[in-house]
Write a structure and sequence with these properties.
Elements lengths: L3 E4 L3 E4 L44 E4 L25 E6 L27 E6 L10 H24 L8 E6 L2 E6 L15 E5 L4 H12 L5 E4 L7 H8 L6 E4 L2 E4 L1 H10 L2 H9 L18 H6 L5 H7 L6 E5 L2 E8 H12 L3 H13 L3 E3 L13 E4 L24 H19 L9 H5 L2 H9 L13 H23 L8 H6 L1 E4 L2 E4 H9 L53 H17 E4 L4 E4 L2 H4 L8 H9 L4 H12 L5 E4 L9
Parallel strand pairs: 8-9, 19-20
Antiparallel strand pairs: 1-3, 2-7, 4-5, 6-7, 8-10, 10-11, 12-13, 13-15, 14-15, 16-17, 18-19
Helix pairs in contact: 8-9, 10-12, 10-13, 13-15, 18-19
């Protein structure tokens, strides 16, 4: 049984296993005479060690690690050569009269503490015990009491030598014992009695706001953050209270403290806690900034933005002769002809036929309707078939579609992209690690940011993507891809180990009247309509109108700006239209710095991410071109090694790292 110690000073004594079991017991006494070849052993509980009382306020000895496993951060122990579950055999040992009777440790025998000569005692003996020796139980007890004093004294000396300013857990290694001393936080309960409320206004991607947030988390101060990018309706309140829209702005109850400069001044002078208690030591008043209310939208503002064509669409939807038709050897469902729509407009809207045809073209341009094969513009023709957007057969795959089209006036895709980025950055600041390699998808799923993101992407249904410049489109699709991955993980789960089609192909958005999956965005748009790995078909046909959205030249750096939601992918990040090129280059440098490349100089081998195997043609025609491309984004150490290998004329081998598809959570 392994002793485990827990005390309020966060000192953890970890158990150590030895080859003969959980505790190694020396045998200091000489063996018995030759006629006695067996070892009388006793299955007993070894008295547990304890920490010196002066070093802890409360010490609790656990009988088994399972009794308090939740109270310990981690438990490590050296591997034992013998399995924890041993096989035992039962033997009967008769103790001769002339031998001294061993004393069992207290608590071993319930009726008597001695063993008489007449008694037969059944003993469990390990089958691995094949060395004959005698055991003096009293000596064993003294040995462990002495060892307890030695270990406790050693731990006490090491703890007393620790500096009070040490940060994080400190490990103390003694022979066969490992102790972790975890320094407590700075007054973790100092603000438990605080009656007031600390709140601050912020924006997504604001460095000063990040500094305020980090400081509050460091001192474990409860706070309320009001992100005006997530709650734009609170921005006017910020201006009314402070006279400016600059952030961060900190409030202690209803009293305005100031921004980061004031906070740093109080922090450096050591007066922050005193000011905090004086200004927020009383109960929160009604004049203090309110906690953001989750789950509510401004419906009146939404109604004011209804598209002016909605009235005509509302008239046509129930009156169109919608039916299934057989065209080009295919069954086309829920469609109508261009002539049918013109007739309906003439009859129910009281317009001439020429004007009705113009209305039909406008409805198609605004993506209320689309051609069944998405080939041509609207025509007053009985042979050309169209359908309403909500009747698209793939509507169940469109995760930004809620059984009906978004009837609001289409927003600019640039505006939607900016709002999308602000919401996603706010999620990462709240629910991801600082390096963005670990994301808490469970908390994102129930957050207000994610709920508002779900409402925002509905505006993508009828946007006009042609209004974006090439650089803006690059930024837009990079950010949309990373946002869709988060949405897909929350909605359908992480990519499967074998069939990843549901994740990368079946999870789709309807954008500007056209379906886009993760694979479509990556291979069709960002990679300029190149085949995905292990595929023989390009994403877009030669007549697909989405070809107009892809860049003229594919930029290989896009591979380091896309996160697939797994641990071997680059860190999740979002880009700005003005700085997307610079930010992509930095993303590549970070990827290689974090292990995207390793160089074994002695073996003349370069270990690259498997991304370079799947998309090798994007980086160069041969391995030398690929390595020369990589060389531009390495740090000085790796660049020096790779340059030497490339220039000395010797052969270079490229090996590809294993790809970890587990979720980056």
């Amino acid at each position: 049984m392994s002793p485990l110690f827990l005390c309020e000073s966060n000192i953890f004594l970890r158990p150590c296993l030895f080859p003969m079991g959980e505790v190694a017991v020396p045998h200091p006494h000489p063996p018995l005479p030759d006629q006695f070849n067996s070892i009388p052993t006793v299955d007993s509980t070894i008295p547990s060690l304890s920490l010196p009382e002066e070093n802890t306020t409360e010490t609790e000895t656990m009988k088994h690690p399972k009794d308090s496993i939740s109270a310990v951060d981690s438990i490590e122990s050296p591997k034992s050569d013998v399995s924890s579950e041993k096989s035992y055999k039962t033997e009967t040992v008769i103790l001769p009269e002339h031998l001294p009777k061993p004393e069992a440790p207290p608590g071993l025998l319930s009726k008597s503490n001695s063993i008489s000569h007449e008694e037969y005692h059944t003993i469990k003996r390990s089958t691995s015990a094949n060395v004959a020796s005698s055991v003096d139980m009293a000596s064993i007890g003294r040995f462990f009491r002495d060892q307890s004093d030695v270990v406790s004294a050693a731990i006490a000396r090491r703890i007393s030598s620790l500096k009070e300013t040490s940060n994080g857990p400190t490990e103390i290694h003694l022979p066969d014992v490992k102790v972790i001393v975890k320094a407590p936080g700075k007054n973790p309960s100092a603000f438990s009695s605080l009656k007031g409320r600390v709140s601050f206004f912020s924006r997504s991607g604001c460095r000063d706001c990040t500094a305020v947030r980090s400081f509050f988390r460091e001192i474990e101060l409860p706070y309320v953050e009001i992100n005006v990018d997530v709650f734009p309706e609170r921005e006017q309140e910020l201006v009314d209270r402070t006279g400016t829209n600059q952030v961060p702005q900190i409030f202690l109850n209803e009293k305005h403290l100031g921004g980061l400069v004031v906070l740093n001044s109080l922090r450096n002078s050591g007066e922050f806690e005193n000011v905090l208690k004086s200004m927020a030591g009383t109960k929160v008043s009604d004049d203090a900034p309110m906690v953001p209310v989750y789950g509510f939208d401004h419906e009146e503002a939404e109604k004011e933005n209804l598209d002016e064509m909605v009235a005509i669409v509302a008239v046509l939807r129930p009156r169109m002769p919608i039916q299934d038709r057989f065209v080009r050897m295919k069954l086309v469902r829920n469609c109508f002809s261009g002539a049918d729509m013109v007739d309906a407009i003439v009859q129910h809207v009281n317009l001439g036929r020429e004007k009705a045809a113009e209305i039909g073209k406008e409805l198609l341009r605004r993506h209320f309707i689309h051609h069944v094969f998405r080939e041509i513009d609207f025509e007053d023709d009985a042979q050309q078939l169209y359908r309403f957007l909500e009747h698209d057969p793939g509507v169940l795959k469109y995760f930004n579609f809620r059984m009906s089209t978004n009837d609001n006036k289409p927003k600019s895709p640039a505006v939607i992209g900016q709002l999308l980025t602000k919401l996603m950055v706010a999620m990462l600041e709240s629910y991801a690690s600082d390096d963005r390699h670990h994301v808490d998808y469970a908390r994102i799923a129930v957050s207000e940011e994610f709920r508002r993101y779900g409402n925002l992407v509905r505006d993508l249904q009828r946007v006009d993507m042609a209004t974006l410049s090439e650089t803006e489109r690059l930024c837009f699709f990079l950010n949309l891809y990373n946002a869709m991955v988060v949405h897909a993980v929350v909605t359908i789960g992480q990519p499967g180990l074998i069939d990843r089609r549901a994740f990368f192909t079946d999870f789709q958005y309807i954008i500007g009247g056209y379906p886009y999956s993760l694979s479509t965005i990556k291979n069709g748009i960002l990679r300029s309509n190149r085949r995905q790995p292990y595929s023989f078909v390009k994403p877009f046909s030669s007549t697909d109108i989405r070809l107009e959205l892809m860049p003229k030249k594919m930029n290989p750096l896009i591979h380091f700006g896309l996160c697939n939601g797994n641990r071997s992918s680059p860190a999740v990040r979002f880009f700005t239209p003005d700085g997307v090129e610079v930010e992509l280059r930095q993303a590549a440098r970070d990827f290689f710095k974090d292990g995207g490349i390793n160089i074994d100089f002695t073996k003349r081998t370069v270990y690259l991410s498997r991304i370079f195997k799947w998309y090798s043609a994007d980086f160069g025609q041969d391995k030398l071109e690929v390595l020369n491309w990589v060389l531009n984004y390495l740090d000085s150490t790796k660049a020096g090694l790779l340059s030497h290998l490339l220039n000395d004329g010797g052969a270079i081998s490229i090996s590809y790292q294993s790809f970890d598809w587990s979720l980056n959570c």
